[in-house]
From TrEMBL, chain A:
Pfam families assigned to the protein according to its UniProt record, in alphabetical order: EIF3I
GO-annotated biological processes: formation of cytoplasmic translation initiation complex
Role according to the record: Component of the eukaryotic translation initiation factor 3 (eIF-3) complex, which is involved in protein synthesis of a specialized repertoire of mRNAs and, together with other initiation factors, stimulates binding of mRNA and methionyl-tRNAi to the 40S ribosome. The eIF-3 complex specifically targets and initiates translation of a subset of mRNAs involved in cell proliferation.
Highest taxon listed in the record's lineage: Eukaryota
Gene3D superfamilies, per database record: YVTN repeat-like/Quinoprotein amine dehydrogenase (2.130.10.10)
Compartment(s) of residence: Cytoplasm
Listed name of the protein: Eukaryotic translation initiation factor 3 subunit I
Keyword Protein biosynthesis: yes
GO molecular function: RNA binding; translation initiation factor activity
Record family assignment: Belongs to the eIF-3 subunit I family. Belongs to the WD repeat STRAP family.
Placement of WD repeats on the sequence: 6-37, 48-89, 160-185
GO cellular component, as recorded: eukaryotic 43S preinitiation complex; eukaryotic 48S preinitiation complex; eukaryotic translation initiation factor 3 complex, eIF3m
Keywords assigned by UniProt, alphabetized: Cytoplasm, Initiation factor, Protein biosynthesis, Repeat, WD repeat
From TrEMBL, chain B:
Lineage, uppermost ranks: Eukaryota, Fungi, Dikarya, Ascomycota, Pezizomycotina
Entry GO terms, CC: eukaryotic 43S preinitiation complex; eukaryotic 48S preinitiation complex; eukaryotic translation initiation factor 3 complex
Family recorded in the similarity comment: Belongs to the eIF-3 subunit G family.
PANTHER family attached to this UniProt entry: EUKARYOTIC TRANSLATION INITIATION FACTOR 3 SUBUNIT G
Full protein name: Eukaryotic translation initiation factor 3 subunit G
Primary site of residence: cytoplasm
Region named Disordered: 1-36, 188-208
Record domain RRM: where: 215-293
UniProt-listed InterPro entries: eIF3_g, eIF3g_N, eIF3G_RRM, Nucleotide-bd_a/b_plait_sf, RBD_domain_sf, RRM_dom
SMART domains named in the record: RRM
Record-linked Pfam families: eIF3g (PF12353), RRM_1 (PF00076)
Oligomeric form and interacting partners: Component of the eukaryotic translation initiation factor 3 (eIF-3) complex.
UniProtKB/TrEMBL annotation, chain C:
Gene3D superfamilies assigned: 3.30.70.330, YVTN repeat-like/Quinoprotein amine dehydrogenase
Source species of the chain: Neohortaea acidophila
Major localisation: cytoplasm
Gene: PRT1
Protein name per Swiss-Prot or TrEMBL: Eukaryotic translation initiation factor 3 subunit B
Keywords per UniProt: Coiled coil, Cytoplasm, Initiation factor, Protein biosynthesis, Repeat, RNA-binding, WD repeat
GO CC aspect terms: eukaryotic 43S preinitiation complex; eukaryotic 48S preinitiation complex; eukaryotic translation initiation factor 3 complex
Length: 340, 296, 739
């Protein structure tokens, strides 16, 4: 496969997101820019200008009408995807580190950063899908996280039932999305190794977290039980689940300052690592970034994936047939068994 | 003081945002030229496996492919481009979109990370071209890499001095060959990592560790309570530090007030120089500049 | 005036040990000998003489007695019987020191006085100890013979079904023995901490693992790695086995101090450096002192010069019937085993002898039927005599061949492994004494008259030379002049030689196949079976390459090589940063390269390659000290049997391949089971959660699929639309490094 390099950003990438049909990729970077690209050929569709600080996060609604972004300028902004028009700006006391639409696109979550004098806050807004309509200023839910360590990532589960957060001490917490009550905390990752990413499965019934502890873990949404663990040899920044029928997870990470204790002659470990989701075994790597991978995202169609790197590039990879044909012997066995 | 290759990034705001060094700023943008036969030649810059700046030249042809798509997708395809792309013609623009080198990605059971990523067959031509790479030492123009030059310590290249102790712990791994002066000289030397090796060669070459003295900075006005580790950590942000030499008083062990920091990559050094000059450390303000050859 | 520091006699050195008063400790712990009686000896078996003859007898005895020590007539006490008519037949003699008494016992005991009398001489204290009443039982009790214990099978490892070889690794404080699993992780056999104190060494046939300790040397073996033998040599530094493992030589640079009552060592060993032991009984046979090499022992400032000890100093003949030591400049002492007596009671005088070597295998000289072993030696120019190289046959001491050499500055002897050739590498110098070049004088031992072939015109100094084991080809490495002021060692050239092709069974003259220049190589390691060789650069910080060559390449042969008996081909090259040692396994299939912490600390560990240079495994290990393959004894198969195996190799290999496959799949069975279980579990869980989710969605009145998932669904009615996309096709591309 020939990766397509998207060079629209001058600084490191912080997040990349596919539209729900997988045809568009939205990329945000520390250079204050939000770009949109066609995933098929890497052609840039446009850019969304307005933020005045490094962009930390982006998400698009299921209909690919609205785009939400959060930045270091302490605002979350809502844009019309097609025209680039800024529809709404929400101001906060601190930077917005995560934004996410619920699975039905009716709610939008914003996570603000914990800083001296300010705690982490989670805001949930009810969203009007019409771009012309005005959007509410007040959140329908606000959670101030005061007793738990700093929140690093957050998301809305299936049925918009729970809000799940990842923290800087490696723990995962589950909150009631209606009342904001903390239901349950799981100490999944190694102590004090922050959770760097949280991404859902296609139906949001399970999710994957990545951590600086060099592992990624698959969790059950309702119980927070760790279902699978994938062990890498470098701190991870991001992890994604490929949609069925493929059963893979993709991990991305790497250390910028060279890790002296390894004997690898290669320049760092800037690779996207593929593991089999069920068997937890590594099955391949894709190199190319010359800086750590900050985010990996898989198209909902499963035909391609992209990674945003510290090097300022987004690399889009369309898989070749072997990727789809690959099966472990027990999977093949099962397939054939089912036929009879 | 700053090296020419560093571009100043646009509208830098909160310094606190920066948690990692930025690689994106250093490379020049891609260049496109149209050829007579309707194809285009694109030159992109990147950093190769050995950490060296390299350029990729591609000749491409644009074709139009018709595909059947989800109607919503089709609809979006028809949207006019907006923002900086407004008014631009259809198709990927070479200043924003380029094709990388072909990778064969095939999941395998029992994947071992030591295996090299396979390159597509046409890449072998490229590998052959690299094999014929001519090596010339920058110091004495002999047919060896600069780091292997027997005169390395006596005739330091072009005005940059390296001083004193070698820090053996610094920068292992990926010690790229310093292929000074390519293209000149007609030796048939084949660098070891490119010789036809049977089976998977390790290429674990930690010997060719490079202390490019063009990438050595002199840091002065250093607090006397500073330690090598402090300096290393401070300067590691900008790239791989191969050596830190902190001048110490032999008797008391306190810092004498200056230090030398060597980077693997000159551009890292340039960036560090720019960013660390004037940095407050302890009760003093550091001065950082490129180390000049000492007059001995 | 009080003595001051300046006036101190330098002779009275402050020897720390003496100053400290140990007397109270000595009193407490010293074994009490009968006071003052240990200077006495008792002589028994004397003729009974009358008082008048007594004096004569005493004088007669005195002559003998004074030959070993100092005594006087009055110290000889010959008691008379009660009646006073004649002597009792024994006498007491007092010597000046107990050591003299002991020497007397040794020298005189059992010697004959005259035809009818043989004296028995013993120390008085011994007699007291053994003979006193009550000490010895009056009745004879036959000694108990221990029941026969079956000893462990010492060659158990050869029976490994997969034919794996073993090796030992010494890292940190642990010594471990492993099976070589080629590409996989080595299977551990045993691993013990503090098994040795300095290093480990295999016996030449691989039967024992030798460990070194301050008190001596221990041999371990058998499947349980139990201690089989122990040799007490306090302060031992080096150890050497005879080729058949029947004898072992230990050496310590400190002369031994043997106390009385040492169960193993006797006073004979006191003050000696070398001991040659019989392995089976673990008893010392003979001991020797280190011969100081000629030359000053102190340099100008009076500092002692450290002499490099040549090891092994006692060289074994190939069948361990003889062992020889050279006294540099004088001669060679050849001892016969098992008694270790000097052959012909005298050393072989070779004036000026600088070095010698036994042939490594029984020689097969043309027309010689009798048993012989050969040793090769050389002497430098002395006065008007030119330098000589000689080949001597033992035990006849006939000089089979000599050769005169001129302008020799140094020479080194290299036997081929089957004693077919011995190559003398001669460093020549010009009249002005600068070394100009090297010659090889090759003695063709198997041919009639032992002709000598000269290979000359070798530029520069030869720094390394190696014969092909069991073959007739060799490699040498030459190095250029060391240029002053440059820290880097000069480039070396590697030259490959083989005999010319000639008709019949004869071996042709040696011809240069090829020389490879501008290398950094300094080490040659042949495979023990011949044909393959690794030429490498070791102990070099800038260069650490390994070149794998094949001498009998089965591919195309170069035109110019068609008259040569070799088809040389470089199979591959590899690197091992900081490599210090290279070892082939005994089968010649694998090469282990290691970086020992005894030489540097930069990166330690090992690499394992196969014979063609493919890296099979690498493992960096902290504090890695030593790697050693376990040697194998000679094959027991006859030549015909071996030929048979080769012929039927295809069939045998099929069997082995099946075994390999079975092994791989059986290891996988467990894994496959586990995966099956995991998959079942996962799919079941997914089914459950999906069902639950669907149920909940329906309960809540929501559509089956959430909006975001719905996006992917294309309605029948809508159908798909055609879309135009522009793609880039790459026609050509290349990359290059930019300055």
């Amino acid at each position: 496969m020939r990766p397509i390099l998207l060079q629209g950003h001058e600084r490191a990438l912080t997040q990349v997101k596919f539209s729900k049909e997988g045809d568009l990729i939205f990329s945000v970077s520390k250079d204050h820019l939000v770009c949109a690209w066609y995933s098929a050929n890497g052609e840039r569709f446009g850019a969304y200008k307005g933020h005045q600080g490094a962009l930390w996060t982006v998400d698009v609604d299921p209909s690919t009408t609205l785009l939400a972004t959060g930045a270091a300028d302490s605002t979350m902004r809502l844009w019309e995807v097609r025209t680039g028009k800024l529809l709404k700006t929400w101001d906060y006391p601190t930077a917005v580190k995560r934004v996410e639409f619920s699975e039905d696109g009716k709610q939008l979550l914003a996570l603000t950063e914990k800083r001296t004098g300010h705690l982490s806050n989670i805001y949930v807004y009810d969203i009007n899908p019409d771009p012309e309509a005005s959007q509410t200023e007040e959140p329908s839910l606000r959670i101030t996280v005061d007793e738990l360590p700093r929140v690093t990532v957050a998301g809305i589960s299936c049925l918009s039932k729970y809000i799940v957060t990842g923290h800087e001490d490696g723990s995962i917490s589950q909150w009631d999305a209606k009342t904001g009550e903390l239901i349950h905390t799981a100490f999944s990752h190694d102590e004090n190794q922050l959770v760097s990413d949280l991404q859902w499965s296609a139906d949001r019934t399970y999710f994957i977290t990545s951590s600086k502890d060099k592992t990624a873990k698959l969790h059950d949404t309702s119980s927070l039980e760790v279902l699978k663990t994938y062990v890498a040899d470098t701190p991870l920044n991001s992890a994604a689940i490929t949609p069925e029928p493929t059963q893979y997870v993709i991990l991305g990470g790497g250390q910028a300052a060279m890790d002296v204790t390894t004997t690898s002659a290669r320049q760092g470990k800037f690779e996207a690592r593929f593991y089999h989701k069920v068997f937890e075994e590594e099955i391949g790597r894709v190199r190319g970034h010359f800086g750590p991978l900050n985010y990996v995202a898989v198209s909902p169609t499963g035909h391609c994936y992209c990674s945003g790197g510290e090097d300022g590039y987004v690399r889009v990879h369309h898989f070749d047939p072997p990727y789809f044909d690959f099966k472990f012997e027990v999977e093949r066995e099962r397939e054939q068994g089912l036929r009879f | 003081m700053a090296a020419a290759s560093v571009q100043t990034p646009p509208a830098r705001t909160d310094w606190a945002e920066d948690s990692e060094p930025d690689l994106a700023t250093v490379l020049p943008p891609p260049q496109v030229t149209k050829n007579k036969d309707g194809t285009e030649t694109i030159v992109t810059f990147f950093i190769n496996e050995d950490g060296k700046k390299a350029k990729r030249t591609q000749r491409i042809r644009r074709t139009i492919v018709k595909k059947k798509e989800n109607p919503r997708v089709a609809e979006r395809r028809a949207w006019p481009k907006m923002g900086p792309e407004a008014g631009k013609p259809a198709g990927p623009r070479s200043d924003t979109t380029t094709l990388g080198e072909n990778i064969i990605f095939r999941p395998v059971m029992g994947f071992k990370s030591g295996q090299q990523q396979e390159k597509a067959p046409e890449e072998d031509k490229k590998a052959d071209a690299l094999k014929k790479m001519q090596i010339k030492c920058r110091i004495c123009s002999g047919d060896h890499f600069t780091t292997k030059c027997p005169f390395k310590d006596t005739m330091a290249p072009e005005g940059e001095a390296g001083s004193a102790a070698v820090d053996m712990d610094g920068g292992m791994g990926g010690g790229g060959e310093d292929a000074g002066g390519l293209g000149v000289g007609s030796s048939s030397y084949v660098p070891p990592h490119l010789r036809g090796k049977t089976g998977s060669g390790t290429g674990e070459r930690m010997g060719g560790r490079e202390r490019d003295d063009l990438a050595t900075l002199r840091v002065t006005n250093v607090s006397e309570f500073a330690e090598e580790e402090d300096l290393r950590q401070m300067f590691e942000r900008y790239g791989r530090v191969t050596r830190v030499f902190l001048a110490k008083d032999r008797d008391t062990g306190r810092a004498k007030g200056f230090a030398f920091v060597s980077y693997a990559d000159r551009s890292d050094a340039a960036r560090a120089c720019e960013k660390m000059d004037g940095y407050g450390f302890g009760h003093l303000i550091l001065r950082v500049e490129f180390a000049k050859k000492s007059t001995t | 005036m009080a003595p001051s520091f300046e006036q101190l006699d330098p002779e009275d050195d402050y020897d720390g040990e003496e100053e400290i008063d140990f007397s109270d400790l000595r009193e407490q712990y010293e074994v009490r000998m009968e006071e003052g009686l240990d200077t006495f000896i008792v002589i028994d078996g004397l003729p009974k003489v009358t008082p008048s003859q007594k004096d004569k007898l005493v004088k007669f005895l005195l002559r003998k007695l004074t030959s070993v020590g100092r005594t006087k007539e009055e110290n000889v006490f010959m008691p008379m019987n009660e009646a006073g008519e004649e002597s009792e037949g024994f006498a007491f003699v007092e010597y000046e020191s107990p050591a003299q008494a002991a020497a007397a016992v040794k020298a005189l005991h059992g010697t004959a006085l005259d035809k009818r009398h043989t004296i028995a001489v013993n120390k008085l204290t011994d007699i007291e100890r053994y003979g006193r009443e009550g000490r010895i039982e009056e009745t004879y009790n036959p000694p108990q013979i221990a029941a026969f214990e079956e000893k462990e099978h010492l060659r158990w490892w050869l029976g490994d079904a997969e034919g794996r070889d073993q090796f030992v690794m010494y890292r940190g404080d642990n010594v471990g023995v492993f099976w070589n699993e080629s590409a996989g992780a080595p299977e551990q056999v045993v691993d013990r901490m503090h098994w040795t104190e300095s290093f480990v060494q295999w016996s030449p046939k691989g039967t024992y693992l030798t460990s070194m300790h301050t008190q001596g040397v221990q041999l371990w073996g058998g499947p349980n790695w139990s201690r089989h033998k122990r040799f007490m040599h306090p302060g031992v530094n080096l150890v050497d086995f005879s080729p058949d493992e029947r004898f072992i030589t230990t050496w310590s640079h400190r002369p031994m101090e043997v106390e009385e009552g040492n169960p193993v060592l006797s006073l004979e060993e006191d003050g000696k450096n070398y001991i040659i032991w019989d392995v089976a009984t673990a008893k010392p046979i003979r001991s020797f002192v280190t011969l100081d090499l000629p030359g000053p022992t102190q340099d100008e400032e009076g500092n002692p010069i450290k002499k490099k000890i040549q090891w092994p100093a006692f060289k074994w003949s190939s069948d361990a019937k003889y062992v020889a030591r050279m006294t540099q400049g004088q001669g060679i002492s050849v001892y016969e085993l098992p008694r270790m007596n000097l052959m012909d009671k005298q050393s072989i005088k070779i004036e000026g002898v600088m070095d010698f070597e036994w042939c490594p295998a029984p020689p097969q000289r043309d027309n010689i039927r009798e048993y012989e072993q050969l040793l090769c030696y050389w002497t430098p120019e002395m006065g008007s005599n030119p330098a000589k190289v000689g080949l001597m046959s033992i035990p006849t001491k006939n000089i089979v061949r000599t050769r005169n050499l001129f302008n020799v500055s140094d020479a080194k002897l290299h036997w081929q492994s089957e004693s077919a050739f011995v190559c003398v590498k001669v460093d020549r110098h010009s009249k002005s004494k600068k070394t100009t070049g090297t010659n090889l004088e090759i003695f063709r031992v198997r041919e009639k008259g032992v002709p000598v072939e000269v290979v000359d015109n070798i530029p520069n100094t030869v720094i390394n030379f190696a014969w092909e084991p069991k073959g007739d080809r060799f490699i040498l490495i030459t190095a250029g002049e060391v240029t002053q002021g440059v820290a880097v060692p000069p480039k070396t050239s590697v030259s490959f030689y083989c005999p010319e092709k000639v008709k019949g069974n004869a071996v042709g003259n040696f011809k240069l196949i090829r020389t490879v220049d501008k290398k950094n190589n300094n080490a040659i390691h042949w495979s023990p079976a011949g044909r393959f060789v690794v030429v490498a650069t070791v102990l070099n910080q800038q260069s650490f390459d390994l070149d794998f060559w094949d001498f009998d390449f089965e591919g195309e042969r170069d035109e110019k090589d068609k008259d040569l008996t070799a088809n040389l081909q470089l199979m591959g090259t590899a690197d091992h940063y900081g490599v210090t040692d290279i070892d082939w396994d005994p089968s010649g299939r694998f090469v282990a390269t290691s970086a020992s912490v005894w030489k540097h600390r930069m990166e330690n560990g090992y690499h394992l390659y196969n014979f063609s240079g493919t890296l099979l495994r690498e493992e960096p290990i902290e504090a890695f000290k030593q790697w050693s393959w376990r040697p194998r004894p000679e094959r027991l198969l006859s030549k015909e049997e071996m030929k048979n195996v080769r012929k039927n190799l295809r069939e045998y290999s099929r069997q082995f391949e099946e075994i390999d496959q079975a092994k791989k799949s059986s290891a996988n069975k467990a894994v496959v089971e586990e995966r099956r279980r995991q998959l079942e579990e996962w799919l079941a869980w997914r089914e459950r959660t999906q069902a639950d989710l669907l149920e909940e969605r329906r309960e809540l009145g929501l559509p089956d699929l959430s909006e975001e998932r719905e996006a992917l669904v294309v309605d029948e009615a809508e159908g798909e639309k055609v879309v135009e996309e522009m793609f880039e096709e790459i026609l050509e591309e290349h990359e290059e490094v930019v300055e």
